[in-house]
């Protein structure tokens, strides 16, 4: 984009002469052609069903591009269309939605003198419209909610709020947070300025301490999320590692988690989002917790050194503890409930562009936006798969143009938006931080034939991120050439330009032998422009990029992967426009096979194998060296490969030097991970230069500490290979266990008879107060399961097939390990899995799963020679969208909108059914 002489207009309508303005040359669009007219459109019904099949949302005759998926249609219609449902004012077309946002930003740009001419303004609107219609880019949700609806709309999703050591400040923070939650945004605060409970008040009384005030903040967030107009409250609470109350803070959420378990065992409802339930009755369920640590603290941990906790008022040492012991408490709490995460304060402030104004103390809820207290950031994300060229390369030039357009649009939003407090409005105007990011990195790498956890994958990701941020700062400097730099630039000129130089220096460390040479060269060129133009004009925006979780907007763009995440699985379940779901192999798999040079017939064979086996392991014709390309975040049902959690951390380390902000990502760790493993992850994240990291141990919520041993005979019974199939009868006198259950108020009992080695061999189910039909059906069903077990069908196979079936009765159970059941069979087989297939025996489970590989006969216990061999055909039941992922995240909370089980997304959760997200983007 260029600059030229122009006559512009102020927002108040008075004309003025501007020396320069931004020229917007055509790249994606054609003069005189509406970008919407270049697409094929159709009318659809957008409908969302909840648990039990009841309709939560429905709008008929919604006009969308034919290329958009059913889920994208649902998201825009249910989340972003404005006007009362059924009224004439209700939006019904994506044309109206995109037109409302684009025309409003274009009008503001004209009024504020951003464009070199009216021709450039028209070009800007067409180019921006192209990006949005083609799903190449999306703004954060508040833009879609509010722009073009309100005169001065809230446009930012992420806020950081200051709080000081006074009751007035503390109560004002509660008010500010409440208003932000009401309008669908998230906020974070560092409470370290509040004096500890170990210090005296000025009047001589005892201070309450920040953890006490956190209870009040949490209660307000819980109330507001229940009635908010858009989505739940999202917040971050941070405390510095040298605060005297740090140990209380570290243990606060884990302590409440234990209380929730006790309440569930006492009969309280164990579901999330349930008023009066166990989790509604304990604190700290509405915020992410993070500890701020310095390099000095991390070195003290390594050296097992002393660590001073200092008073907030006079700075004196209140107590001295061992740093390693504090880290042990942090990792044990994270092992138990996922919190707290860690933010690396020294690293954060070493990359700070405005240290002469103030230091960075906090972040937004998802940890990607880190900047001054009382500031805001509007986010936008680019869909990387749409910049993949026909030959499988990366369209660096098109990507740069998209960055330029998005940065210009985000910049225009800053001065036309509404902010919740005067302080946030003042800082937003003075520093103008932006949060451009991307989605679909995992899909792009796979489609390019690159393993996510590889040097080449990391180098390519680094080059793309470097190009994005370099071009964003270059564009920011071009805008500064005619609008002036951000108001705080003069005060921070030296450190700001020094941070740009650090980014540019990091680009030189990307190995062009591992990443595409033209991409690396483009990144170097962008940073050369950024440094040159920044030195000449300054920059318009103190920050320009982050990597957000791209939850709802990821659905809107039909992204296969979000933010920096790898793909979840090779097989997915796609919603059909006319209803129902279709099991499909991930769209990136055939692209990857083509890129790797496989012949069409081999590709077809491999895809058929994946469709049948739900794994690529064992596919005929696939070369072993290409297996890592197809590794995903979770293990497939019948395979063993997955991306190690350190692979996620290494990817974050590769791209962090090229971001103004940080990265929203939770590093998922296996159930078997120990607190020591978590400490290793935290330490390695620090060494790699991350600004923040959060972990989540699969299955940690609502679970008791892991059993460390299991009867060896039972292990062998679960995993033992079998050559022949015949009935293995139980002894006349056998051990048994009886379990009482309740599902949505329907009570029942199940009794499991066991072999001498402890393996289950029979099942009896009795439903109390039920008619003879239900009792008879359950008796017959249990008998068939008993026969299956005795004829050698692995319990894991039965659990895989019958878990998560949906029918009535369903609902809450009171069982802390299975708080919600989708049906009686769902409950029975999830309980059997927990009872007889403990999660720490993952290897044995995987071995049993391999028995279902195509062509393999289901295996049973070894029998006498001469018994006949019978091969049983595999049984397939397509689950609901995302359900295969849900099996691996059974402790994720249900969606507050539709009730479906959510999946991890960055530091938060997203719903694969209706598109709801619990984050702030």
From TrEMBL:
GO biological process, one term: DNA biosynthetic process
Function: Catalyzes the reduction of ribonucleotides to deoxyribonucleotides. May function to provide a pool of deoxyribonucleotide precursors for DNA repair during oxygen limitation and/or for immediate growth after restoration of oxygen.
Region (Disordered): 1-20
Catalytic activity: a 2'-deoxyribonucleoside 5'-diphosphate + [thioredoxin]-disulfide + H2O = a ribonucleoside 5'-diphosphate + [thioredoxin]-dithiol
Keyword Nucleotide-binding appears in the UniProt entry: yes
Domain TSCPD: from-to ranges: 731-833
Database matches in Pfam families: Ribonuc_red_2_N, Ribonuc_red_lgC, TSCPD
Family the UniProt entry places it in: Belongs to the ribonucleoside diphosphate reductase class-2 family.
Annotated source species: Anaeromyxobacter diazotrophicus
Protein name: Vitamin B12-dependent ribonucleotide reductase
Any one GO MF annotation of this record: cobalt ion binding
Superkingdom of origin: Bacteria
Entry's EC annotation: 1.17.4.1
Cofactor: adenosylcob(III)alamin
Keyword entries, A-Z: Cobalamin, Cobalt, Disulfide bond, DNA synthesis, Nucleotide-binding, Oxidoreductase
EC class: oxidoreductase
Domain Ribonucleotide reductase large subunit C-terminal: 156-696
Gene3D superfamilies to which the protein is assigned, alphabetical: 3.20.70.20
Keyword Transferase: no
Residue ranges occupied by any Ribonucleotide reductase class II vitamin B12-dependent N-terminal domain in the UniProt entry: 44-135
